[in-house]
Write a structure and sequence with these properties.
166 residues; single chain; extended
Length: 166
């Protein structure tokens, strides 16, 4: 019996598997396979960046008042009265509420409240830091942040309607 020879083409390239540590920003912002702790971490980072950008913009805008005679400030404040700026203010207040609530959760965790007993990490490692009381605290704080955001939106509704009415 003759054996069949199988020819393997040299042009076939196996699929390239990229390790997770080489994915960079794509792996950091990918929402797939996120647990609750990872979502809280990502929200904290994103809201922190939003707040830092806002602080620098706020310092720049308020420095205009110090450097000028006041007319530039008045013109700038009149230019800021539009729906785009109102939306930006709502985003900043939402970022502040979420960042603050998550910061309170992190402070409570670092002080040892609702942390639980330490466990030995064994493969496959599953983080247990946001289970039980910690998760409950996080959910309660995020609900409070949501209420603050809701009140902010309700406060801005008359400003939107006033702008579009006339």
């Amino acid at each position: 019996m003759e054996e069949e020879k199988i020819e393997i083409s040299k042009n076939v390239v196996p699929p390239k598997v990229i390790p997770k540590y080489k994915l960079g920003l794509k792996a950091w912002i990918s929402p797939f396979k996120f647990n609750f702790e990872r979502w809280m971490y990502t929200l904290h980072r994103v809201t922190g960046v939003i707040l830092v950008v806002y602080v620098y913009m706020h310092i720049y805008v308020t420095s205009i008042r110090v450097l000028g005679d006041g007319t530039g400030w008045t013109n700038l404040m009149n230019a800021f009265e539009n729906p785009i700026n109102y939306t930006g203010e709502i985003i900043v207040i939402a970022a502040l509420a979420i960042h603050g609530a998550n910061g309170i959760r992190l402070i409570l965790a670092e002080l040892g409240y609702a942390v639980g007993k330490p466990i030995r990490p064994e493969y496959p490692y599953k983080p247990s830091s946001l289970k039980g009381a910690q998760r409950t605290i996080a959910i309660i704080l995020m609900i409070l942040a949501g209420i603050m955001i809701l009140f902010t939106i309700l406060e801005y509704v008359p400003l939107y309607s006033q702008f579009f009415r006339g």
